[in-house]
């Protein structure tokens, strides 16, 4: 045997040594004797996690890809060599993970999470931790309608043709209930908190809120459908009113996060009016028409984190975006059929835009900050009739979409 090895060492070959390869032995009919020459050392397979969803949804398939970066056509790892654990971090419960060899140097790891929250997926090959493991994922709820609450009437917790909505600093939904001359406060799950009426003790007037927004100091600014903007605190204590000299029919209202000014849609004047928080009038922009910078019955209004003003035009079937000084930037929905008789409009923390199509059957559509269509928030089975108000929470990674529809409130995951 020794002489044979010495003979092999003297043989000259013209091939370079191969690394990270494998040797396959096949038996032949006349093979009658084996002997141990030693141990063949091979470079280990090099695996790493290459793709996974950061925000998978409850009950939907989670697919994680694992790749052998040293793959040259074959590898010696079997599915049974791979150990996986998907752990629910909060409850410390494990979910099953299926391992599939894709026969191309990759493995697919598939599973389903049963509960919402943080999950950790740990992966090892032959007891060696794979590069990129553990993988941390935040499981989020399924898309679609989460809950709705409605009770038509004038009692506590009942609504009579509600309009706009916002969320207070305390995390409660504030819904305009103008036919009952009040706000109604609810938790995000629909539990009634309180009814709030705003009354000016000097004049004796009780105001009907239609659209509402909140400033950074917690004060509420709301419009009354006619010529007033009312300011009150979170408990409904009257502070001031303004706008009577300029406004004809006030609709949407928003406070700019960049300059603190108050922007109000004046429906029948076809313009947007700008005030200081104290009620001093600055200027207006817009005029009746369908060209750039022109407005035709502006209804909803919101302002994104950059200070851009998004206005819904109910009779032009579009949204129009302006900078904080009223300069036209671009249209949304003017070249497709995604917007029809738009009413309420809202933006989220990423400056995506949400708009209610008031025409029955109603719809709520989402666009990115440049006006590109992303998705429809509801579906036909949700039965929106005349959605008129919309608000998006700051939940991560995607806010809940609150829709005021006829006599009820509907909450959607996205």
Write the layout of secondary structure elements.
Elements lengths: L1 H9 L36 E5 L9 E8 L13 E7 L4 E3 L1 E5 L4 E7 L4 E9 L2 E2 L5 E5 L4 E7 L14 E3 L5 E5 L4 E5 L5 E5 L14 E4 L5 E4 L5 E4 L5 E5 L7 E6 L6 E5 L4 E5 L5 E5 L12 E6 L5 E5 L4 E5 L5 E5 L9 E6 L5 E5 L5 E5 L5 E4 L10 E6 L8 E5 L2 E6 L1
Antiparallel strand pairs: 1-2, 2-6, 3-4, 3-7, 5-6, 7-8, 7-9, 10-33, 11-12, 12-13, 13-14, 15-16, 16-17, 17-18, 19-20, 20-21, 21-22, 23-24, 24-25, 25-26, 27-28, 28-29, 29-30, 31-32, 32-33
Distance between the termini: 72 Å
Radius of gyration: 32 Å
Number of strands: 33
Largest sheet, if any? 5 strands, antiparallel
Q: How much of the sequence is in beta strands?
A: 35-45%
What level of helicity do the residues show? Answer: under 10%
Low-pLDDT ranges: 39-43
Shape: elongated
* Count of alpha and pi helical runs: 1
Kindly name the structural category. Answer: mainly beta
Give the mean pLDDT: 90
Characterize the structure shown.
- Strand 5 (97-101) and strand 6 (106-112) form a beta hairpin.
- The chain has one helix at residues 2-10; strands at residues 47-51, 61-68, 82-88, 93-95, 97-101, 106-112, 117-125, 128-129, 135-139, 144-150, 165-167, 173-177, 182-186, 192-196, 211-214, 220-223, 229-232, 238-242, 250-255, 262-266, 271-275, 281-285, 298-303, 309-313, 318-322, 328-332, 342-347, 353-357, 363-367, 373-376, 387-392, 401-405, 408-413.
- It has 414 residues and is mainly beta.
- The strands form eight sheets. Strands 3, 4, 7, 8 and 9 form a five-stranded antiparallel beta sheet that branches. A four-stranded antiparallel beta sheet has the order 1-2-6-5, with no helix packed on it.
């Amino acid at each position: 045997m020794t002489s044979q090895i010495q003979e092999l060492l003297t043989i000259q070959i013209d091939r370079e040594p191969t690394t990270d390869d494998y040797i396959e032995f096949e038996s032949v009919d006349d093979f009658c004797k084996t002997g141990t020459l030693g141990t063949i050392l091979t470079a280990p397979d090099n695996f790493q996690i290459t793709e996974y969803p950061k925000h998978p949804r409850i009950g939907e398939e989670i697919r994680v890809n694992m790749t052998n970066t040293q793959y040259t056509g074959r590898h010696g790892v079997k599915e049974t060599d791979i150990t996986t654990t998907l752990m629910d971090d909060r409850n410390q419960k494990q979910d099953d993970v299926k391992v599939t060899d894709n026969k191309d140097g990759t493995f697919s790891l598939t599973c389903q999470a049963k509960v919402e929250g943080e999950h950790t997926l740990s992966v090892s090959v032959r007891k060696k931790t794979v590069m990129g493991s553990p993988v941390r994922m935040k499981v989020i709820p399924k898309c679609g309608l989460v809950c709705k609450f409605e009770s038509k009437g004038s009692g506590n917790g009942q609504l009579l043709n509600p309009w706009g909505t916002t969320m207070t600093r305390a995390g409660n939904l504030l819904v305009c209930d103008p036919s009952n001359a009040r706000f109604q406060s609810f938790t995000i799950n629909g539990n009634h908190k309180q009814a709030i009426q705003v009354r000016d003790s000097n004049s004796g007037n009780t105001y009907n809120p239609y659209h509402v927004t909140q400033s950074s100091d917690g004060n509420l600014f709301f419009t009354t459908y006619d010529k007033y903007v009312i300011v009150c605190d979170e408990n409904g204590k009257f502070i001031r009113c303004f706008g009577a000299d300029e406004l004809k029919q006030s609709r949407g209202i928003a406070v700019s996060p960049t300059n603190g000014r108050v922007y109000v849609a004046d429906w029948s004047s076809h313009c947007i009016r700008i005030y200081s928080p104290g009620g001093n009038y600055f200027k207006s922009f817009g005029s009746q028409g369908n060209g750039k910078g022109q407005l035709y019955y502006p209804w909803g209004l919101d302002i994104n984190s950059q200070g851009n003003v998004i206005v819904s035009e109910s009779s032009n079937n579009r949204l129009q975006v302006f900078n904080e000084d009223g300069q036209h930037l671009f249209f949304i929905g003017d070249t497709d059929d995604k917007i029809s008789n738009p009413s309420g409009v809202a933006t989220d923390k990423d400056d995506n835009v949400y708009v209610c199509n008031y025409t029955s059957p109603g719809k709520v559509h989402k666009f990115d900050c440049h006006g590109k269509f992303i998705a429809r928030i509801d579906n036909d089975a949700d039965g929106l009739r005349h959605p008129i108000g919309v608000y998006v929470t700051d939940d991560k990674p995607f806010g809940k979409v609150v829709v005021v529809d006829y006599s009820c409130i509907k909450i959607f995951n996205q």
